[in-house]
Design a protein that fits this description.
The complex is a heterodimer of chains A (759) and B (62). Chain A has 759 residues and is an alpha/beta fold. Chain A is 42% helix and 11% strand. The relative contact order of chain A is 0.07. Chain B is built from two helices and three strands; from the N terminus they run βββαα. With 62 residues, chain B is α+β, with helices and mostly antiparallel strands. Classes of the chains: A alpha/beta (759), B alpha+beta (62). Chain A binds chain B through residues 341-344, 346, 386-388, 693, 707, 710-718, 722-725, 732, 734, 736, 748, 750-759, and chain B through 2, 4-9, 14, 17-23, 29-30, 32-34, 39-43, 45, 48-49, 52-53, 55-58, 60-62.
Chain lengths: 759, 62
């Protein structure tokens, strides 16, 4: 993976951006966390957070000019969270504050001129780092403009309690000591000028670093805010910023690298406030506006709190890992960079549906699909892609491109085709008879001849990061398409349509549904007479408005009352087949399906066979649109999802039937194998085990045929069951069976990839 | 180990024996029910779907 590209993707995620209140605060106090602590009644914790950002928390909790509150996202809804009152509640109800630790003293000496909030803050921050600090103040007492405030605003006890930190840190405070700055330059390594509004502003204070024309003299606080209302929090912010600049200067570091200028910023954090309920601000019973603990808890609960997490809430996969894309991208990149050790994010990389919903939702358009796809391709390139993740799906692809299913021909009796029908592997596996009928309808209504192409579009290879395989599949399709005279492609499956649009740029690709919208449904299509159906758009049709509209028109023509599922069209969700999610991570796949099928009580209708079958597999009554047009079944929505083995069989039978019905050809049977003769008796439970463990009936047959022919099996005399195994390639299959009257009864089956052999 | 399992070919009871399990170039000795006569090894379901699957995953993620 390209480091720079990954860094750019990571930077797109804004979840770690500070919320608006923090950005609006010059000192960037984490007000969201303080509100959260207040909500939990953890006032001690809230006070500790405030103390982390401001060295004088009691003072600020009394006098802050609260620029945060005006930016609160609740302002347009009802009223801002009363952050300042929450800070006050935390301070009033906290029982203790952590005492500052005195670090080892450094040799550098710093002079601070002025004992207002700005100078005091710089002094404390520098002393905490070990600098020897002396404060020079012309007044008799420290505090600067704080001393002008009435006692009702700032009680002397709060001021005194906060200023004790000076003594704890060994800061020397020289009050009533007017001093000329020139006299300090030899004795002190750096000077912070914080002499307040009454002083003349030194020329040129760099707003980014607060350094003056003299590289060892810094200035900030009220002296650079003359004419502005007193902002205690801005003074504190300046003091902290100057302290960092002085520290950098004395440590020989860059004053500017990786820093933001002091003061308020504009938050980039996106917050969706749709549907946020109005909650009136809590009014304090106290005349001074001081909250009781109960009032503070209730007010703290008014904080939203601000987060983006739009994609995480919309996508089960992104929610499953309990974090957010910024961290995921980092984990995935670290996973990719490992040379020795465990790649712990492989499963995460392979669990994404690659459907792109996140990018549609993200305010910054970050696509986890792009990140996961790139990571998969990189794992494949390095030979580090776990075989188990995609092995089964790729074996299915091999089947679908083999002679057992693949077929590409002009319609019977024709030698040219204006169009080519590509039903896709999964529709052929789920609705083979309907595919045959709709092909007949297309031949009848579409002029110029309609060829048929059974096969795989290559999507599973693409999802597995197997560019090599994908190129092979595409080359095969392109060759067939050219041999058939470059007809326009009619794709029934939205994933196929997308693959063709991508991989066969010279082909005109249409969806079956736009064609049927134009030529009309086949005779015998179901009349729905107002039947209510909830429509699910497949994720591969996300931006295909033409197909989405055509499907709705076809349904309307059949007389359906269509209910739109939430987030349909461009915000639709994947059914868990996309990206081979359900193969790599069945647990997440199941969550995805269960969430989607809970969104309406009506029967679902869709136009992707895997969506239909995945919904059905979790018990949701679902139909494919093709079933409404061409199924003879009385209740197609009740049809269960076919198993993997049934899918194989259906595809093979479709090809056999087409060859016979259309061309009068009898398919040359493959050379008979002993396994073909093995008749299986599968209970529902046994079939479910095979499905869950992705074991095909043909694998089971082979194991039993081998065991019966060689006697290579284990017998359990307590029940007469045999257990046998066979390793045809990279997987060992085990089957527990017994001989029954009509065939071999399968009791259990399992597999492993590890090879086990007697030494 | 399940008692009394018999080798289908030799009709003798399987006995615990040390065999080699290998995957992705790594090998480990494992004690599994084995036919003392022909060496036929039996991998129980719980092992295949439990510990063995875990080790496979660990090795695949290496």
């Amino acid at each position: 993976m390209d480091r720079e590209w990954v860094r750019q993707q990571e930077a797109l995620c804004i979840e770690e951006q500070p919320p608006a209140c923090t950005s609006a605060c010059p000192a960037h106090v984490d007000a969201r966390e303080i509100a959260e602590r207040a909500r939990r009644g953890d006032f001690q914790g809230g006070a500790a957070i405030l103390a982390r950002y401001v060295p004088f928390p009691r003072i600020i909790a009394h006098v802050c000019d609260r620029p945060c509150e005006g930016s609160c996202r609740r302002v347009p809804i009802d009223a801002p969270v009363q952050i300042h009152a929450l800070e006050r509640a935390c301070i009033d109800n906290a029982t203790s504050f952590p005492a500052p630790r005195r670090p080892t003293a450094l040799r550098f000496r710093v002079a601070v001129l002025g004992a207002g909030l700005s100078g005091l803050t710089a002094a404390v921050e520098l002393a905490r780092k070990g600098y020897r600090v002396v404060i020079f103040e012309t007044a008799a007492r420290p505090g600067g403009r704080l001393l002008e405030l009435p006692a009702g605003v700032l009680p002397a006890e709060a001021l005194d309690a906060d200023l004790r930190v000076l003594e704890m840190l060994g800061i020397e405070l020289r009050c009533a000591s007017p001093v000329a700055i020139e006299s300090l330059t030899t004795e002190y390594d750096a000077i912070y000028l914080a002499t307040g509004t009454a002083t003349k502003e030194p020329l040129a204070i760099d707003p980014a670093t607060l350094v003056t024309a003299d590289p060892r003299i810094f200035a900030g606080g009220g002296l650079r805010r003359r004419g502005e209302p007193y902002s205690p929090i801005a003074s504190i912010a300046d003091g902290r910023h100057a302290a960092v600049s002085i520290d950098r200067l004395l440590q020989g570091a860059s004053l500017t690298a990786n820093r933001e200028p002091p003061g308020p910023q504009v938050s980039r954090l996106f917050v969706n406030t749709d549907g946020v309920a109005t909650v009136p601000a809590i009014h304090s019973a106290d005349a001074g506006g001081v909250f009781t603990p109960e009032e503070a808890i209730a007010e703290g609960a008014r904080c939203l709190p601000c987060h983006c997490l739009e994609c995480v809430e919309a996508c089960e996969y992104l929610g499953h890992y309990r974090s957010y894309p910024k961290r995921y991208v980092r984990e995935i990149f670290n996973n990719d960079s490992i040379v020795m050790g465990q790649r712990k994010a492989n499963k995460m990389v392979n669990s994404c549906a690659l459907c792109g919903l996140c990018a549609d939702i993200c305010p910054e358009k970050l696509s986890m699909a792009d990140v996961c796809r790139s990571a998969r391709e990189s794992l494949v390139d390095k030979g580090k892609m776990p075989a188990s993740a995609h092995d089964f799906a790729l074996r299915d692809l091999a089947f679908n491109t083999s002679d057992r299913f693949a077929l590409a021909r002009h319609a019977p009796g024709t030698t040219a085709s204006a169009a080519l029908f590509f039903p896709g592997c999964q529709l052929s596996a789920s609705c083979p008879e309907e595919v045959e009928k709709i092909y007949a309808h297309l031949r009848e209504r579409v002029p110029g001849g309609v060829a048929i192409h059974l096969g795989c579009c290559g999507a599973p290879a693409d999802w597995a990061g197997r560019k090599d395989l994908l190129d092979g599949v595409t080359a095969g399709i392109a060759a067939d398409w050219e041999r058939l005279g470059n007809p326009r492609v009619i794709a029934a499956c939205p994933s196929c349509a997308r693959m063709f649009a991508d991989r066969l740029p010279n082909a005109k690709v249409m969806s079956l549904w736009t064609v049927l919208d134009a030529i009309g449904p086949p005779a015998g299509a179901r009349q729905l007479e107002g039947r209510e159906l909830a429509l699910h758009d497949p994720c591969a049709a996300r931006y295909d408005t033409g197909t989405q509209d055509a499907v709705r028109r076809v349904l309307a023509r059949l007389g359906a009352t269509v209910r739109e599922l939430p987030g349909n069209r461009n915000r639709t969700t994947c059914c868990s087949f996309g990206g081979l999610m359900s193969f790599a991570n069945p647990e997440v796949g199941e969550k995805v399906v269960k969430r989607r099928i809970a969104e309406s009580d009506a029967d679902y209708v869709t136009y992707c066979a895997m969506c239909r079958d995945n919904f059905a597999s979790e018990g949701k009554r679902s139909v494919h649109l093709l079933e409404l047009l061409a199924s003879d079944a009385s209740d197609p929505a009740a049809r269960p999802s076919p198993t993997f083995s049934q899918r194989h069989a259906c595809r093979g039978q479709l090809k056999t039937r087409l060859l016979f019905d259309l061309w009068g050809e009898r398919r040359q049977p493959a050379p008979p194998a002993p396994a073909d003769a093995v008749a299986l008796v599968l209970s529902q439970g046994a079939a479910a085990i095979l499905q869950k463990r992705m074991i095909l009936e043909e694998d089971v047959r082979r194991v039993i045929a081998h065991a019966e022919a060689t006697g290579d099996r284990v017998e359990d005399p307590t029940n007469g069951h045999f257990t046998a195994s066979l390793r045809p390639a990279n997987v060992t299959f085990w089957v527990e069976y017994s001989a029954g009257a009509t065939g071999f009864v399968v009791h259990n089956a399992y597999s492993h990839r590890m090879d086990v052999a007697a030494p | 180990m399940k008692p009394g399992l018999l080798c289908g070919r030799c009709h003798v009871e399987l006995r615990p024996g040390t065999v080699t399990a290998s995957y992705l170039g790594q090998s480990f000795p494992v004690e599994l029910p084995t036919c003392p006569s022909c060496g036929r090894v039996y991998v129980p379901e719980a092992l295949a779907t439990g510990k063995m699957a875990k080790v496979e995953q660990l090795l695949e993620d290496k």
